[in-house]
Amino acid sequence: MTITTASSVRTPTSTTTPIWRPAAAAGVAAAAATAAVAAVAHAAGVPLTLDGEPVPPSGFAVMTLVCTAVGFGIAVAMRRWARRPQRTFVRTAVALTALSFLPDLLVPAASADTRITLMATHVVAAAIVIPVIAARLNRSRR
After folding, report:
1. Residue 113 domain-assigned?
2. What percent of the chain has pLDDT over 90?
């Protein structure tokens, strides 16, 4: 007697897999990384002050979490309305990261070291968060 079994393996697609869990984990990792970059820069003597006020490493972490939440919202919108959610999200996120350099460049009293450190934290956060969220999006909507 031969027994035949049909195995139905369902691989989750990005429309059914949650984005929030990996986005939250990436946000926490990015927050820790940006705080570490800021702490190392501060220890190296880089003045992390904006408008005369010192910016603590925890401030970098908080802003990273806020921006990750915004990125999550953009990803959810792209998943729902974009024809190519993954590509559209990556392009949008990279463009917004580039635009985030403008305030750093325009701070009148910031030293070059401070500006470079601020921009480096943007790049570090984006390098951690964007790929994690993008991996959860479909390449195209069906």
Report:
1. yes
2. 70
74: in domain = yes
Amino acid at 86: Q
In a domain, 105, yes or no: yes
Alpha-carbon dihedral of residues 111, 57, 123, 78, nearest 10 degrees? -130
Q: Where are the alpha helices (DSSP H) in 13-84?
A: 20-43, 57-81
Domain count, the chain: 1
Nearest alpha-carbon partner for 19 in 72, 66, 67 = 72
Helix (H) or strand (E) holding 112: helix 112-134
Check: pTM over 0.85? Answer yes or no.
no
Which tens digits make up the pLDDT trace of 20-73?
999 999 999 999 999 999 999 999 999 998 778 888 999 999 999 999 999 999
Joined together, the tokens standing for residue 90 give: 């990556």
Is residue 130 one of the residues assigned to a domain? yes
Domain extent for 129: 20-43+53-134
